[in-house]
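I hope you will forgive my troubling you with a question about protein structure. The record follows directly beneath this note:
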Amino acid sequence: LHRALSGALDASAAAALRGLEHANLMKIEAIGLDAGEAWTRCESLEGARSLAELQPALDPRRAAGLARQAALGAAHLHARGLVHGRVSPPEAWVHDEGRGRLVLTP
């Protein structure tokens, strides 16, 4: 996850992520650097399944709806000058409540 065009998680992007909340984004609990590599810790994925795992058994309309929800999370990032990068079924997760949410990774 990075500021548009920068390719690296900088201090201002990290600060923007700390207060980031949206129904279709996993909540970030911590952000840090380890040996120069950025990391994020999101809320627990316990009970959640990736859209990639669920997709083969899902009705196409339901799969499209979940993908749309993840895209809404990405749009929320873009509105704040942040870019997720790859948005695909492995990055979209579905919790027990049935809501699609995008996992935030550096």
Observations:
- The longest helix spans residues 60-79.
- The CA atoms of residues 55 and 63 lie 6 Å apart.
- The two ends are 4 Å apart (CA to CA).
